[in-house]
Amino acid sequence: MLPIARGIYNGLASITRSSRGAALHTASVFRSKAETAAASENEAEAADGEEEPKSSAPDPKDRTQVIPVETSMRYLKSAAYKKTYGEDYVWTQYRRNHKGMYAPRKTRKTCIRQGKISTGNPCPICRDEYLVLDYRNTELLEQFISPHSGDVLSYSQTGLCQKSHLRLRVAVEQARDSGLITYDVPFREYDYNEYYGQQKS
Amino acid sequence: MSLLRHVRRLNAVQGLQHCRREVSSAPAKSATLKYDQDPQPLFTDAETQRLLQSMTQLQLDKVFRKKTVKDNRSETKFMTNEQLEQEFLMTIEKAKHLLKMPPIVKIKQDTERPIAKDPALKDFATTKYVFTDITFGLPHSERKVVVRETDGTLAYASLDTIKRMNQLYFPLEGRKSYTPRMFAYEELLHKCLEEHKYEFVLDRLTVQYEPYETEFHNLSARVFEHLNESKQFDLLRSTRHFGPMAFFYAWHRCIDDLLYDMIRRDYLHNAVELIALTYKIHKIPVEYTETLAKLQALHPTPDESALSELRGFLRRPEEKQGIEQEIHTAIGKTEQDFAADDISLKFIEEYIASEHSLKKVQLELAVQTLKEINLEKLQLFQGLKKAHGVQAL
């Protein structure tokens, strides 16, 4: 019985794998098309993630394209960014959707599944594909750091999905380690006798 | 824990790629200036310490500026005047504690100190064994750490191992077990310095390294050298790093930029102290103790001035101030200050005229401008006094 079952399973698996491969293939084609389209357009204009999708534009929910950090850093300084968010932080205007009075304790696990936005209300980072979490992108990271405690703000406040939140914390930690973001270093107490011998300074 | 794991994994895979691509993986350059002798006896000397503390100044706003800490609640209390006075004194003590300078000592050389050689124990294991005395309350320098090598030798551990073991059993808050990337990569450090994050770099340096380590000397010297070029001395004023900085410049005979900054900001007594410190360090036969004593009599110490500033908040606005006081607040200087300025200017001019100063023209100009401003203020001061009829005092 067992070998037969295994045979059937293998067959099924190979079918699904091949179909997914095909899907990926089409996606990559789309991507290459989009790239050629974006190259002709002005980049700052293309940077606005919340524009109406044009007929020639690819699926707006597609997130397979990797945006380099440099583009993201330029985007944060651009007019398109200003128009979208104004003076606010990227998470200020975001509201979570939930049934009942109270939001669930945790936010959703991820907004992007299989390279696509899988939800109607993606989190502030996932909804705008030009916001890239990286340790060099300090302007973005600083929006998520509390000015009072110096910690990364909780997802209950910012509404980030769990995956983005983890990436955010990693990026902030790396940026601190690299000295790109300053923080208040704990005060070092010295036992002066240890360095100067017994004489007291 | 999971965050740490992720950071480490990312650092290992992606971070290193970034570094290779973007950040030149060359380790931090070493500084050009080094302490050629043991600077410790001169630094810990009581007079030097007094001079350095006076130069550092005590600006309460800067010492107690808002910090991002876990718990920053504030407490509101009703107090009598006596209690408030007590509280003021406590505040000054606290501020002085926060301004305590990191020690300056010479670089400690690592020596091998074997205890016993037991060839019989050769190849007893494939790894070294480190034994640490983890008695509670021992100072770190007295903690015994010994290593049994694989070839059977028992020896005292190297400084590096001792530091690692201390960090393992008695962790110091903020110290990393690896070299922070900021210090490891030249480009990141350079970026920090270019953005004038001097205090941040120095704070991190004190936490990460011990004062007797080579890295500590190298990196702090680099920061001070960069600071001497960018001339942003005010960033470090009233922090714990100002004293070591002034000492560094005095030791290496490059005080002129700092001196210029002090004159421009009208901290003349500080300028005198800096010159006196240089004379003291290099044993230049110029008599400075007399001038210093005179200035000390005329000028309040930093904690006295901070205390009077605190008491100033207590005074009610409708309370009658003496006319003398009013003139003082209008001009910002008292008769004592003018007298002190005269003494200091004389001393500074002597220094500029001597062969020890390197940027004579610049300093002379600064002194000249300051003299003119002072003269104007003095005339105004005397005029005001005459108008109010208090010149008899």
From TrEMBL, chain A:
- Superkingdom field: Eukaryota
**What does the record list as coiled-coil region(s)?**
none
Q: Where in the cell is it found?
A: Mitochondrion
Q: Where is the composition biased (Acidic residues)?
A: 42-51
Which keywords appear in this protein's UniProt record, sorted alphabetically?
Answer: Mitochondrion, Phosphoprotein, Ribonucleoprotein, Ribosomal protein, Transit peptide
Record's keyword annotation contains Phosphoprotein: yes
Gene Ontology BP, a term: mitochondrial translation
Cellular component, GO annotation: mitochondrion; ribonucleoprotein complex; ribosome
Segments of this protein annotated with the region Disordered = 33-66
InterPro entries of this UniProt entry? Answer: MRPS18B, Ribosomal_bS18, Ribosomal_bS18_sf
A Pfam family that this protein carries is: Ribosomal_S18
A GO molecular function annotation here is:
structural constituent of ribosome
Family that this chain belongs to: Belongs to the bacterial ribosomal protein bS18 family. Mitochondrion-specific ribosomal protein mS40 subfamily.
Protein name listed in UniProt: Small ribosomal subunit protein mS40
Protein source organism? Drosophila madeirensis
Automatic annotation (TrEMBL), chain B:
Q: One Pfam match, by short name?
A: MRP-S22
Query: Is the keyword Ribosomal protein assigned to this protein?
Result: yes
User: Which Gene Ontology terms cover its molecular function?
Assistant: structural constituent of ribosome
Record's GO cellular component, any one?
mitochondrial small ribosomal subunit
What keywords would UniProt list here?
Ribonucleoprotein, Ribosomal protein
Recorded hits in InterPro entries, A to Z, give:
Ribosomal_mS22
Question: Would I find Magnesium among this entry's keywords?
Answer: no
Which chain regions cross the lipid bilayer?
A: none
Top-level taxon: Eukaryota
Output this protein's name. Answer: 28S ribosomal protein S22 mitochondrial
What is the source species?
Answer: Drosophila madeirensis (Fruit fly)
